[in-house]
Design a protein that fits this description.
6 helices; Rossmann fold; 9-stranded mixed β-sheet; alpha/beta; 278 residues
């Protein structure tokens, strides 16, 4: 059973900037998504109990009845201001959105800077995540969604970077109706010797997947793109695959106004979600 409660107090004094029930929290000035009506959107931090651990999760709910739900899966830098912004973007498109803190077992308040040391810190935290743990986290988020919206609610995932790899993993779960994977760098090659690649589970995929990559991404090669497509084709799995030649890794971090690729892909993501969550 998933126990949830609003974060009325900081978890162990370290969940800074996450305040009382129903209060919208901005991690930094300017985190708002342009064009979204925040007066008609509810955002809050909650906790979900997963395997005896409290998992902070950022929730953004649209005004009115949601079109479905989306579990937003973080980059290695944590559920930070950009991830909150993308969760809100998802809600602004009409979906109930929840971003679970996937590193809660080692640090529930995890955030890392966009720097060399921050990247190393995030990579280490991601390396501690097991497939079993990630699936349990997503399953807890799905249970919360269905408790809020009803048992027939359709749910998608949308992951970025590390979360993009976990999004493909989520496509093996019966709870997930569709998965969106943005620049998942650990799909083909696992960063942890004891953890298999996500691609090795291609035969177990049960949900359609939308992939988006940057053509200038040095972390994910054209050979990796080909390997993903080959594995899914050989197993007869439905997917869409887009490469934006002029974009780099993390090109959607600032949302659809960040660059031409992000502006182009955002309508495609909305079309994909609408097709599979209707």
């Amino acid at each position: 059973m998933n126990l949830r409660r609003d974060l009325a107090e900081e978890t162990e004094g370290r969940l800074h900037r996450r305040r009382s029930k129903g209060e919208r929290v901005r991690a930094q000035p300017g985190a708002c998504v342009p064009g979204l009506d925040y007066a008609r959107m509810k955002t809050q931090w909650i906790e979900l109990e997963v395997d005896g651990s409290a998992m902070p999760s950022y929730v953004a709910a649209p005004d009115g009845r949601p079109l479905g739900a989306v579990v937003v899966l973080q980059e290695i830098f944590g559920v930070n201001a950009p991830m909150q912004k993308l969760t809100e973007l998802t809600a602004g498109a009409g979906y109930f959105a929840i971003a679970p803190a996937l590193f809660h077992r080692t640090d529930p308040a995890f955030e890392a800077e966009y720097s060399g040391p921050g990247f190393a810190k995030g990579l280490a935290a991601a390396g501690a995540v097991t497939f079993e743990g990630a699936i349990a986290d997503i399953r807890a988020a799905c249970a919360y969604v269905k408790e809020r919206l009803g048992p027939d609610t359709k749910i998608a995932t949308w992951g970025f970077c590390f979360g993009g790899s976990i999004a493909m993993l989520s496509a093996t779960m019966p709870e997930i109706s569709a998965a969106v994977s943005f620049y998942g760098g650990q799909i083909v090659k696992s960063a942890v010797p004891s953890r298999p690649s996500v691609l090795s589970l291609a035969a177990e995929v049960v949900a359609p997947i939308f992939f988006a990559f940057g053509g200038k991404d040095e972390h994910i090669s054209p050979e990796d793109h080909a390997a993903i497509r080959k594995a899914l084709n050989e197993n007869g799995k439905p997917y869409e695959f887009r490469v934006f030649p002029q974009e780099d890794h993390g090109f959607f971090r600032q949302g659809p106004d960040g660059n031409p690729g992000s502006a182009e892909v955002w309508p495609l993501v909305q079309q994909f979600l609408a097709a599979h969550l209707a």
